[in-house]
Hints:
Four copies of one chain form a homotetramer.
Chain A: E1 7-15, H1 20-30, E2 34-43, E3 48-56, H2 63-76, E4 80-85, E5 91-96, H3 101-111, E6 118-124, H4 130-135, E7 140-142, H5 150-163, E8 168-171, H6 180-186, E9 190-194, H7 206-213, E10 217-224, E11 234-241, H8 248-271, E12 275-278, E13 281-284
Parallel strand pairs in A: 5-6, 5-8, 6-7, 8-9
Antiparallel strand pairs in A: 1-3, 1-4, 2-3, 9-10, 10-11, 12-13
Helix pairs in contact in A: 3-8
Amino acid sequence: MAPRSPRIVALLSGPDQKGLVAKVSGWIFENGGNIIHADQHRDQEAGVFFQRVEWSIDDGSDPREMTSAFQACGDSLGMKTQVAISGQAPRVAIFVSKFDHCFHDLILRWKAGEFPCEIALVVSNHRNLEAASKSHGIPFHYIPVTKESKAEAEAQQLALLKQEDIGLVIMARYMQILSPIFLDTFGQPTINIHHSFLPAFAGARPYHQAHAKGVKLIGATAHYATPDLDQGPIIHQDVARISHRNSVEDLVRKGRDLEKMTLAQAVRWHLENRILVYDNKTVVFD
Amino acid sequence: MAPRSPRIVALLSGPDQKGLVAKVSGWIFENGGNIIHADQHRDQEAGVFFQRVEWSIDDGSDPREMTSAFQACGDSLGMKTQVAISGQAPRVAIFVSKFDHCFHDLILRWKAGEFPCEIALVVSNHRNLEAASKSHGIPFHYIPVTKESKAEAEAQQLALLKQEDIGLVIMARYMQILSPIFLDTFGQPTINIHHSFLPAFAGARPYHQAHAKGVKLIGATAHYATPDLDQGPIIHQDVARISHRNSVEDLVRKGRDLEKMTLAQAVRWHLENRILVYDNKTVVFD
Amino acid sequence: MAPRSPRIVALLSGPDQKGLVAKVSGWIFENGGNIIHADQHRDQEAGVFFQRVEWSIDDGSDPREMTSAFQACGDSLGMKTQVAISGQAPRVAIFVSKFDHCFHDLILRWKAGEFPCEIALVVSNHRNLEAASKSHGIPFHYIPVTKESKAEAEAQQLALLKQEDIGLVIMARYMQILSPIFLDTFGQPTINIHHSFLPAFAGARPYHQAHAKGVKLIGATAHYATPDLDQGPIIHQDVARISHRNSVEDLVRKGRDLEKMTLAQAVRWHLENRILVYDNKTVVFD
Amino acid sequence: MAPRSPRIVALLSGPDQKGLVAKVSGWIFENGGNIIHADQHRDQEAGVFFQRVEWSIDDGSDPREMTSAFQACGDSLGMKTQVAISGQAPRVAIFVSKFDHCFHDLILRWKAGEFPCEIALVVSNHRNLEAASKSHGIPFHYIPVTKESKAEAEAQQLALLKQEDIGLVIMARYMQILSPIFLDTFGQPTINIHHSFLPAFAGARPYHQAHAKGVKLIGATAHYATPDLDQGPIIHQDVARISHRNSVEDLVRKGRDLEKMTLAQAVRWHLENRILVYDNKTVVFD
């Protein structure tokens, strides 16, 4: 593909008011931008307006100046405004334990160009994926976690995330709960994959729960991590059909594909600045 | 289609033992039957064996005699045994309130020949579907239900079901809870459609619950009714994708299609003698 | 629901140019409209811009005047422009033969309020659905078609469509091919349901073709009818899983659900002014 | 899991005859086997019977002797009979070119224990995946193919397959057509993944064909390779939804997931001896 002119993506949300689309698109036009996509949604009951708008700018313009200027425009409209330069890849940390399917899947998709980000490091409480990380040229940090050492381990993780300027943590089947303090201190988005169709089967061993209940579909849910375990805003969900013939082991195997696909989709949407969080729910401009 | 020779379907379940398939198929062969389909499943953990076997019999044979004889065979093997003559249509009652989509769907499928049964009557706590029932030639029984009259209404329903020799009740969005006493006294299977992906969103107003939670898929669950509300053995489940754009009204609309399809599939499997209940779960030989 | 202020929906397409979104949304704002939804798409390769925009207008404004004014605005921008008053229900004719599942499905959805239209009449080359149509209060026109009488029959149909001011024909498994002359003379959209996943299995007896080929999924395709049989712009497609156990009759049964769902979705999108046709393909703003 | 007693899987097909199930299950019982699963299908139109039966044998028995004995039993019944010792892993060769997603997917699933086989070697007409193969400890054979060298290259491939005792070739997006002579000489199954919903879009560049046609779903098809290009017996197919927003590049990206999942499922079924080929179609006992 030929190199293309830089693009800017803005996400706005706030109280609905007349003429918002006109004001935003007028501002972009006057400042030399050309809208590529724009999508908006009004929550009629709550009276809230959501917009995602993506525009290309003239080759001569400075995208950083324009993002600052647009931020001011959004503020002046009284809207919560996030602006990003499309393709400005955030630095990402993958947290993983022993289950490696999501880990490999994320790395391979990243190498195939599916994720506009920089996978900067891997954090794990086990050494199993050290060699694999290094073979891909990704620094691997072994930080063991025990009941006693958990606070210390989180402090070490936080220092690392700060030092490495990480803008997104992906919990790729990381089998530790990140504490409210960790999430609060990190202050950046954290995406988790839970291996059930939430809110069903939250907590531990969801495939065992599903098998015991006799459901006919298993699911996976990618969501932003919040202090309430398995209760954060849902980004994406999918299901697969099972039958009485399937043992728990079969559910685990089928679930691996669900988890990989669901997490990867959520990560891609996040990296493409397609997600707005509102009222513990997500608006996904896909 | 040319008339075909009668068929017998048997469902067996019980403790696993060596040679069960050979014994059952040997018995059928020796008694002049020809196996059309046979399917079995072993729950390895529980050591339980499940089988569905369907066979055609010689034109000269009496299917009733053979079902009795096979019943004895199954008993002698120590297996729980149900035998049915394929195509011997059970008499069915539809319970419905005001929502009519499942009602119309069931009737039209039945008229199209999808259900091997006799829809013998409709019971409703409202008069809305009286004309529609009658236009299809199906007796309609208006039995209003209030908190005070519930016991009396159920007694009236039970008398009707007994008098009409009903072998299956379908709750096609019947907005009353059938009491444990009703279910126990009726003693025949009752299939209910719940408008969520159980165990998520059991109870009232599941679409409102789903909307509030921000899930990305809505579901429907067809299950046998038991005294524990929304906790009976699940027969079939399906889901549909929704987005932040969808209001509760959209969920209700999309859900109608899910409910129709899910209930119809469960009813067809039941009528084709494909379902075994075990440990509050179902084995569906599809 | 409370009565809501009138809404206008516009569909625009044409060569891309800078500031289109700003110009359109600015016009709407200046004319007292409030954008509810707006969605646009650019075909990067072809340099073509597509937009759907829906806005509410002040109670005092006259929606007809505004549609005329916007039409002029779109024309002045050099865009192909269609404007409709949301909720202004077009008059629809259903063409059907003997298979009745799509017919019943359309009527029941319409009665449930899913389709913003007026089903004005039914045309059939058989009498089978005469009573059903009349029971719903819909005029039924029996127009038999033979090889010899086809031209005459089409003339009769066209006169009827014109006289009844029909804006959409739905071919709900109408087993006759509408001639190029018919389609050209009618001049309004015609939606057909084909019972395969086009372009596979075009033409006659697609379920038999699918069975013979041994495919593992069957499909249905809703498309606008054009003079090239089964080659018109595809609106919607869906599939269902089949197995070697399924006979052609099973495919027909499963296909009925596919056909109903796929046709209904296409019709709803059409009636909600969500479809733009371009280059024998559709842009669906869903 | 505890070590389990050896199992035998037999696939039988042939003209239907009375008592087949009884004869087969009786033989197994008399020879000390215990049936774990048995599934059969009758093609009513063609009068052909298909069966898959899997049984465990006593620890003292020799599975090889029993397979020979059962082979003789099947022959005496006039049935085409294949018998395999479950878990006796065939040796597999992966053929691949530059697209590496199916390659990585197959290797990772194999390492995760999803495939009961031995991936013995990789053959490629490019050197791209040499390092990756070797890092997994799998011998890599670079065999370039040009128009002129094709016959020679195939001779080299065939020698390799014979020498390494390969029982299955997987074409994991191998961008060369294997000649009829190759397939005939190899004489063992070859599974190919085609990136469309066959029979639609056979041949080259199916995603471009799909984009040009404006279909709303893309597909993938895993099938046995035969001398007729893209016409071999279909094992598995799946689809994914696309929209007008998707460019050809998006189709390629979405298609990668489809191709991986569809090929992996077909390979697993094959390795579990679940597939019977008949009349250029497959019977899959899943």
